[in-house]
Amino acid sequence: MKSKILILFFLFSAFFYFNTSAQVVQYYEPFDSTLNGWVSPGSIFWTWGDQAILLGQVYTISAPSGAGTAVLQDTSVVVNSNTLISEAFDFSLYNNVRLRFNQLLHLENTNENVFVRVKSDIEESDFPLNLNSNWNGTTNSWDLQDIDITAIAAGQNNVLVSFMANTSQAVWIIDDIKLYEPASVGETLPIPYLGDSLKNYNIPYDIGDDGWPYVPYQVVVDFAPNVPESRKQELRDSFGFRKIMSCHCSSDIELWVEDGDAMDLDIIGIQEKTEGSGSGSDIDDIELNKYNFNHLFDTIPPPVHPLKVPPSGLTKTPKGAVLIAVLDTGIDYNHIDLTDHIWQNPNLSWPDSCSMQDDFIGWNFVHDNNNPMDDHSHGTHVAGIIVQNLKKQCTESCDYRLIPLKTHNANGVGNLFDVTCATYYSIDVGVDIINDSWGFYGNSSRILKTAMENAENHNILIVSAAGNDSLNLGITPQFPACDTLDNIVTVGSHDIVVNGNYQRSWFSNYSPSQVDLLALGDQVVSAFPGNLRREKSGTSMATPAVTAAYVAYFCGKRGKVNAIKNALLSCTREEPKMAGKDSEKGRVLDYGFKCDNWWDRFRWPVLAVGLFLLIYMSVCWGRTKTLFRYRKN
């Protein structure tokens, strides 16, 4: 075992070399022992320390450099102006400048202002932080901000950076401030628009060798079963990482942040440190915390505060109901179309097997709280498609419930850790179907695939969107749709059918070897937050139609997941002109084509015939026994 650990360690260490395309770091401050030149004129609340305490709550940050931070601990009940100002920076030789830092921000009054001000000799600009897409009153302890300050700072020799808070009763912890010129190579592949969107949303990212973006400094770790905590800590220390958190429903899955000099992180390269790791020993896999996405959207969302009590108006989940986990941007569980179909957790004992307190109706993995409210619209629209299809196709005896699992933020961006944890949560609560209307390119994730294999072992079907980039998935695969597992159904989109003519939607990814079937994903009207209904298009809209078909076809019955998958695929319509091009055998979903639930339609006639035969055989058997007695006598 020791030799395996040494091999794993050297795999981590062997790639400590310079990367010619790395960022050029102009300034880095880890606040190891003092504020080191940063000043707060007129403010008594900015100090150096490791934590902040407000109203009895202790706040700490998870940042690469570890101990030592700049701390704003504003305990006043009146609004104060508190500013932390840098020394002057010289960017006269730089064409592009970005500001990156770790933070934990908490405001008792979420309408107050917290922002970064960048000032040069020619102009100044403010960048609000409490209006960013992940804002809900308290950020994650590992929140990472990345701001493009090129327009103000590039080419200037007297640039000041200020962290400014006009607040009362607030906590703001800052660490690992970095000012840098980004690498010249920064295009996300195969879709450059994702990188452009992440920049516009101020979501920081670095790019792996497969061209796909990931959360800087973070890796997801899958431990082998039954590794003791002492051994896990030993491995974290030896690799130079610190644990941020573990999955609530699988303590073997952990999120790590690199623990060290952040100026060296781009030179070292987290990917090289982790590549090939996980073969043997106590760790099964280590991977970059890669981003995934559904509908990219620039927005300023309302706060998503934890729920203190279950939402009102929900109905009790019937025993034996088909459970559908929707991994998405959340669901507007107050929507009139959806309220009657939202799952209520029957097991609220604490602590439970997942160590999640008060998960009344699901979980918010983005903010790690119990409120999976949709602050985007995508998840609500997906949920509405499931419900409206089942209202048309399912009998009243078919009970089903939607479990909202918020894995994607208000911009439609998720990450490997959150979707993996949500998959394990789905397994723990015993869902029947998982709807994944999202995806990522680049390399497949072994860690997510292991979670989906566990779902298969628990007889859970996963319905996954093919993607919206008009790509041949046989050449450029998207995941998890293209993972080769028996419990995954991959769904593309077709247009509105005119005169019986099916046509693949122009945006839909396609492949006869990777796409199982097409469903309507063009101009679909469905639920929208705020009791509205709006139109959307995408394979994300086609996927829940197939999810609903599986619920309708097998409602009230269970079977092996691969048999369930193949049974419905065998009764889809096959369009010859699509065969060998758009989907396997040219399959398209058509509720009117053989895919009705014969048991629901013919249950009573079948039972009546069965009862008649039973009575008839019973009478015949009685006569036969009488005849035998007669002959015997």
Overview of the structural elements:
By secondary structure, this protein is of the alpha+beta class. The protein has twelve helices and 29 strands. The chain has a seven-stranded parallel beta sheet, sandwiched between helices. Strands 1, 2, 5, 7, 10 and 12 form a six-stranded antiparallel beta sheet that branches. Strand 19 (363-364), helix 7 and strand 20 (400-406) form a beta-alpha-beta unit. Helix 7 runs parallel beside helix 10.
Which terms would index this structure?
633 residues; Jelly Rolls; seven-stranded parallel β-sheet; 4 domains
Q: How is this structure best summarized?
A:
With 633 residues, this protein is an alpha+beta fold.
Topology:
Blueprint: H1 2-13, E1 24-29, E2 46-49, E3 52-54, E4 57-59, E5 69-74, E6 80-85, E7 98-107, E8 113-119, E9 124-128, E10 143-148, H2 150-153, E11 160-167, E12 170-181, H3 192-200, E13 206-207, E14 213-223, H4 229-239, E15 241-247, E16 250-258, H5 262-268, H6 270-274, E17 283-293, E18 322-328, E19 363-364, H7 378-393, E20 400-406, E21 413-415, H8 416-429, E22 433-436, H9 446-457, E23 461-465, E24 488-494, E25 517-520, E26 524-528, E27 532-536, H10 539-554, H11 561-569, E28 573-574, E29 587-588, H12 598-632
Parallel strand pairs: 18-20, 18-22, 19-20, 22-23, 23-24, 24-25
Antiparallel strand pairs: 1-12, 2-5, 3-4, 5-12, 6-11, 7-10, 7-12, 8-9, 8-11, 13-14, 14-16, 14-17, 15-16, 17-21, 26-27, 28-29
Helix pairs in contact: 7-10, 8-9
